[in-house]
Amino acid sequence: MPLEKTLARVDADLAAGRIPVARQRLRGLVASFPDDPALRRRLAEVYRLYGEPAEAGRWMYLAADRDAAETAAFEKRYDTPLRRMRALAWRGPESAAGSDFAREQLAAVRTACSEALGRPIAWDWVPEYDVEEGQDGAAEGPGSVIAGFLIGAGCLVGVLAFLAVWVIGVIALFD
Known about the structure:
The protein contains eight helices and no strands. By secondary structure, the chain is an all-alpha fold. Helix 3 (37-50) packs antiparallel against helix 4 (53-60) and helix 6 packs across helix 7. The N and C termini lie far apart (64 Å). The longest helix is centred in the C-terminal third of the chain and has 32 residues, at 142-173. The protein has two domains: 3-131, Serine Threonine Protein Phosphatase 5, Tetratricopeptide repeat (Alpha Horseshoe); 139-175. The protein is elongated, with a radius of gyration of 24 Å.
């Protein structure tokens, strides 16, 4: 669906009081057009209707005229550079941002994330795991080691059962 047609539907949804539908349409548009500041601004306005300052701050984070309280709420909710980087839902180079302020914000978040991970990170590939205390890789505790062992053991039992059935079938063919 073209951008203009979808925006017309967003306007109709808002006029009819279908705020969740309008929000979902705008989220889809921002995912398709991450470098469009007007779409991010509209999505922030919808989150303000919900009374969600953290989400409004999320979508206004790249705008110079953003609200300081919303920005603080966003930074509190997404408390690590990696979480902020994922939350901003940016794709492509920082040079595609519409303003110097947006480019600086994107660069600052990417740089902080790269420092936390200890290696360069690009907007085209943002890691899916959380980084704690600057360690690279997913956080592993005793539970994750046990879970990994149990999954491996289960796979081994499954393969052995398959082989046993196969051997019994071959023997049955020659009886």
